[in-house]
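Retry 2 of 3 after timeout on previous attempt. Resubmitting structure tokens to design endpoint.
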């Protein structure tokens, strides 16, 4: 490493790297701060099987389940409905209920797009929590 002493020799043509590194560090910090840290996706609830020695209560009988079969037909607790009437029917069901929870059960051969549509409609009907039911959960009940 060489060092120049004195002012002889004219202007210095070395690049000063310190300000460039400072600017890059500031940019990195800015991008880290503005990048959202929340994960994207759907929040899902899975109903838990009841304890073995407990009777079903009235609230268990009031559970709302949207069932979508392989032909894309929708039912709310065994009551047939379709995609257009689902939101209005959910609004009607949850008018008098304080707890706004609904479960969605789709046929295993069904594309997830249909389940996602039902979840979107439920969120549009101001449902607080939407859970997913699977075959494994049902077998445990």
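Retry 2 succeeded. Sequence:
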């Amino acid at each position: 490493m060489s060092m120049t002493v004195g002012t002889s020799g004219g202007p210095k043509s070395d690049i000063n790297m310190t300000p460039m590194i400072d600017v890059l560090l500031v940019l990195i910090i800015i991008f880290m701060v503005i990048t959202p840290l929340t994960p994207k996706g759907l929040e899902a609830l899975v109903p838990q099987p009841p304890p073995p020695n407990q009777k079903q209560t009235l609230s268990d009988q009031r559970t709302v389940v949207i069932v979508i079969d392989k032909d894309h037909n929708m039912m709310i607790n065994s009551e047939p409905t379709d995609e257009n009437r689902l939101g209005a029917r959910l609004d009607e069901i949850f008018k008098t209920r304080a707890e706004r929870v609904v479960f969605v059960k789709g046929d295993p051969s069904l594309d997830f797009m249909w389940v996602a549509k039902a979840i979107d409609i439920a969120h549009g009907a101001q449902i607080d929590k939407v859970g997913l039911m699977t075959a494994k959960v049902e077998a445990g009940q």
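Attempt log closed. Residues 58-140 form a domain with the Nucleotidyltransferase; domain 5 fold (CATH 3.30.420.270).
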